[in-house]
């Protein structure tokens, strides 16, 4: 499927389409039969879906492909497109509408002005036309004018015209990518080359997967079209829009042992400032799905100078009046399939999409409550509270059920209780009583209850809103990140993430970012709780390695660079990926840190009471075969406070290390000490109380300074980093201690600099390492006889010949050197790198352009070599130089004036337009 680039079209009905019934009995069920479509089919027929019927007496399920009847045109709800913020007309348009006189209070004025803006914004968006077609037309116009300029290079009018067409093309490309990225909602791809093709495929794939054409009702009957939409709306209206009567709530006095004091309660309801509002708004991601009003946070951020005052007035008005406009508190329910073949409404995950104004209000409330939750919520609740970790309960559960698999012993059982839909069915009166009993200020209670009780809902089905009903119970779940994901099939999850034909559109740089995102998200949850089997970590890294080197596919690829080298930091010559096994250990170290630092959590209390029983963690660790933690936590050093929390013999407080390393248990016991003695027990009147024979045997004992004991302070634990400095504990600090700190490669700044072209620098990195698949290297694996250079056919195809000893590549490089004023002695490839890495160290625009030119030259020479070798295509030296020059121009155009000293003179030198103006096209 990946090789021919097809995927399952939207489907429902049965998931398992083949069954095996040996001797008439139920046997194996499998998903064998599929209805597949390529990208073009899904784009041309977005409404088509497949229905898999019951197989009855057959062993295969009948497949029915349905093409829904074309519906009459209806206007889609307004949705602000972030790419409009890139247009010069955007801010003047907003400013013009915002000057309109609107009577009423603050929230009403804000909503009315946003409504007035919708029509002009729609008109502005429509004037841009189809983004894909616009980019194509601008590309054709640019190519035409460049051909004319090539025939008449001295024509100044053509040069000016070409600059305007270049600007139009770049603006259109940037708008297209911004538009597609917003719709694709790909958060991990932050840096890379143009990824419009990838975003386009992701968007079409999501539309196909999320589309709903039919649904099973509560009686098990299939409903299609408007009937299906009614089933969905009725389901949520019954679920969220019906209030159930509850008996009078009476709480015993002993139930609420923790309450807010008056100072804490008042701190939560202090005046809301404009800075607080702006901070909350700008903390909302640009590409998050908008609410019913259609506006994204990007709109408000870009137009903040114009709309900021009204926005702040509206938000402050809510906190002062304790009332919210229902229009602001409306919510769209979006539906995302939870399973591959959804049938009933319960197979879709509802996601609340709220207006940005409401998000800002709720974020301010959450920020004010967050810091005080720890003193209210029991230790048993380890999730959602700052400073706590849900994995504590996972670890505690493992301790509690230890030995349950053994048959002998007393009878025992474990019960997992899940209160289904608890979050969505919370009774509002119950919530209000709880807040009151916890001691929240009346203003805070009114803020929360107003947000909760005035909500109204509509359901987004296939891009259009259906239904409208008031909420009667439940709390909106804005994020699904709060729920624990099933760990089953961790390797399969990684495979599914990378084994997608859409990923074939990504460059090396894009694939590298996907790997970084997957490694930093999917395995982290479980890697923080358990020591993953080495077989699992190796399998995940194998998938990543093959994906990186095999054009975005999950097949076996020949690695250009060893994975151990890739996992080195960039300053040491690698790519900075994390070794998963070492990262696993670093994550687990935070658990051990919590034990020895005495964190106030239920799991730590359990460990201290039942496992350590008053003994040192280090002492017990040796007995429990915790060799990995012992090796990696030796760098923890206690800072003495009152000396009563630091074990004299096992904690690593002395310059000699743990004293149990230099003194045996027998020696300690014979001297009258106990292995559980603390530092304070051997300090008498400010002096060490060591036996004389010990000082004679180990002089360092007497020489070590006596700590000043502070009665009011507890002993503290700090982390010593690889440089020997005391730093706050962090997982990254632990991971850094695993890295072999080599000398920094001198060419680091030549490859990894800010605003680089990622795909070019990736190839430059491979070239500097000598890992490109030149013919001399390929001969070692394939035994090929033809290893001559495709450019000159006279020398061996190798790194040193290709860069830049071959006459072809030498001509390209010499022309580029002249263009960017690079002066260096003639030498081989490695001499050139050595010289440039020493000379291009300044942070100015000239050195920046030279670095871009080097990377682009290497990239395009390598690309031209591959075209000739595999595609049987060829370009002249002049065309390659022209392509490299265009890449440099595009990069300069993307920079702002003043960046590293970029000025109009340099723009004129590279024929880059200084101001953004659209050149008038010929009629």
Automatic annotation (TrEMBL):
* UniProt-listed InterPro entries: DNA/RNA_pol_sf (IPR043502), RT_dom (IPR000477), RVT-Znf (IPR026960)
According to the entry, every stretch annotated as the Reverse transcriptase zinc-binding domain falls at 729-813
Give the highest taxon in the source lineage.
Eukaryota
| SUPFAM superfamilies, per database record | DNA/RNA polymerases
Q: Write down the Pfam families for this protein, in alphabetical order.
A: RVT_1 (PF00078), zf-RVT (PF13966)
The Reverse transcriptase domain covers 343-477
User: By its UniProt entry, which CDD domains does this protein fall under?
Assistant: RT_nLTR_like (cd01650)
- Name-wise, this protein is Reverse transcriptase domain-containing protein
């Amino acid at each position: 499927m990946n090789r021919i680039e097809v995927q399952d079209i939207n489907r429902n009905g049965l998931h398992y389409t083949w069954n095996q019934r040996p001797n008439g009995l139920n046997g194996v069920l499998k998903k064998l039969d599929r209805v597949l479509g390529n990208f073009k089919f899904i784009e041309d027929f977005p409404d088509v879906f497949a229905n898999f019927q019951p197989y009855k007496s057959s062993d295969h399920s009948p497949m029915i492909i349905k093409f829904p009847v074309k519906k009459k045109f209806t206007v889609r709800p307004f949705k602000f497109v972030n790419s409009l913020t890139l247009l010069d007309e955007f801010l003047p348009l907003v400013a013009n509408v915002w000057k309109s006189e609107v009577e009423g209070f603050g929230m009403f004025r804000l909503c009315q002005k946003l409504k007035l803006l919708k029509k002009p914004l729609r008109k502005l968006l429509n004037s841009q036309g189809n983004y894909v077609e616009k980019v194509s037309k601008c590309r054709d116009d640019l190519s035409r004018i460049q051909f004319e300029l090539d025939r008449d290079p001295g024509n100044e009018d053509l040069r000016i015209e070409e600059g305007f067409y270049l600007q139009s093309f770049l603006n259109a490309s940037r708008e297209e990518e911004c538009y597609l990225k917003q719709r694709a909602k790909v958060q991990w791809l932050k840096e890379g080359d143009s990824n419009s093709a990838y975003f386009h495929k992701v968007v079409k794939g999501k539309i196909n997967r999320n589309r709903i054409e039919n649904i099973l009702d509560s009686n098990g009957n299939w409903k299609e079209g408007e009937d299906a939409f009614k089933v969905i709306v009725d389901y949520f209206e019954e679920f969220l829009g019906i209030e159930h009567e509850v008996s009078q709530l009476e709480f015993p006095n002993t139930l609420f042992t923790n309450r807010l004091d008056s100072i804490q309660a008042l701190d939560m309801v202090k005046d809301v400032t404009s800075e607080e509002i702006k901070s909350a708004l700008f903390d909302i991601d640009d590409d998050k799905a908008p609410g019913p009003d259609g506006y994204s946070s990007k709109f408000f951020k870009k137009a903040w100078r114009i709309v900021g005052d009204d926005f702040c007035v509206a938000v402050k008005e809510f906190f002062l009046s304790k009332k919210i406009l229902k229009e602001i508190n409306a919510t769209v329910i979006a539906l995302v399939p939870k399973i591959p073949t959804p049938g009933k409404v319960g197979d879709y995950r509802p996601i609340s999409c709220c207006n940005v104004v409401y998000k800002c209000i709720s974020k301010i409330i959450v920020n004010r409550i967050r810091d005080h939750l720890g003193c209210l919520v029991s230790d048993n609740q380890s999730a959602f509270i700052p400073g706590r970790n849900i994995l504590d309960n996972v670890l505690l559960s493992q301790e509690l059920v230890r030995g349950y698999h053994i048959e002998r012993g007393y009878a025992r059982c474990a019960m997992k209780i899940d209160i289904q839909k608890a979050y969505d069915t919370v009774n509002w009166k119950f919530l209000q009583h709880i807040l009151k009993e916890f001691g929240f200020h009346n203003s805070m209670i009114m803020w929360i209850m107003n947000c909760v009780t005035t909500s109204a809902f509509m359901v987004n089905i296939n891009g259009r809103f259906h239904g409208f009903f008031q909420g009667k119970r439940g709390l909106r779940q804005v994020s699904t990140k709060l729920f624990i994901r099933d760990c089953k099939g961790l390797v399969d999850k990684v495979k599914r993430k990378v084994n997608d034909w859409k990923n074939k559109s990504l460059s090396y740089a894009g694939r590298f970012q996907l790997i970084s995102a997957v490694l930093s998200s999917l395995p982290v949850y479980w890697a923080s709780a358990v020591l993953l089997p080495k077989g699992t970590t190796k399998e995940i890294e194998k998938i990543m390695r093959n994906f990186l080197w095999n054009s975005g596919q999950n097949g076996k690829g020949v690695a250009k660079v060893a994975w151990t080298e890739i996992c080195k930091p960039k300053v040491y010559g690698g790519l900075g990926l994390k070794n998963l096994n070492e990262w696993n250990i670093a994550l687990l170290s935070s658990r051990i840190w919590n034990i020895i630092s005495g964190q106030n959590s239920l799991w730590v209390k359990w460990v201290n009471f039942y496992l350590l029983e008053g003994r040192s963690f280090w002492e017990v660790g040796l007995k429990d075969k915790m060799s990995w933690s012992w090796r990696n936590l030796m760098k923890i050093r206690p800072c003495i406070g009152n000396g009563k929390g630091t074990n004299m013999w096992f904690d690593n407080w002395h310059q000699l290390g743990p004293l149990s390393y230099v003194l045996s248990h027998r020696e300690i016991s014979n001297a009258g000490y106990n292995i559980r003695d603390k530092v304070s027990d051997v300090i008498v009147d400010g002096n060490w109380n060591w036996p004389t024979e010990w000082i004679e045997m180990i002089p360092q004992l007497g020489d070590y300074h006596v700590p000043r004991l502070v009665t009011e302070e507890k002993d503290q634990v700090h982390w010593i980093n690889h440089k020997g400095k005391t730093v706050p504990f962090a997982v990254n600090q632990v991971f850094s201690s695993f890295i072999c700190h080599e000398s920094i490669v001198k060419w680091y700044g030549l490859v990894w600099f800010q605003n680089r072209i990622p795909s070019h620098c990736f190839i430059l990195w491979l070239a500097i390492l000598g890992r490109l698949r030149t013919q001399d290297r390929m001969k070692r694996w394939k035994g090929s006889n033809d290893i001559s250079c495709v450019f000159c056919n006279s020398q061996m195809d190798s790194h040193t010949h290709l860069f830049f000893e071959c006459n072809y590549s030498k001509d390209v490089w010499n022309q580029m050197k002249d263009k960017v004023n690079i002066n260096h002695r003639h030498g081989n490839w490695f001499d050139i790198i050595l010289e440039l890495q020493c000379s291009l160290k300044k942070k100015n625009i000239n050195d920046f352009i030279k670095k871009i030119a080097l990377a682009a030259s290497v990239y395009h020479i390598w690309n031209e070599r591959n075209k000739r070798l595999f595609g049987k295509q060829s370009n002249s030296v002049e065309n390659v130089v022209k392509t490299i020059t265009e890449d440099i121009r595009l990069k300069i155009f993307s920079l702002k004036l003043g960046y590293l000293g970029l000025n109009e003179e340099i723009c004129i030198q590279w024929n880059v337009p200084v101001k953004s103006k659209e050149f008038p096209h010929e009629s």
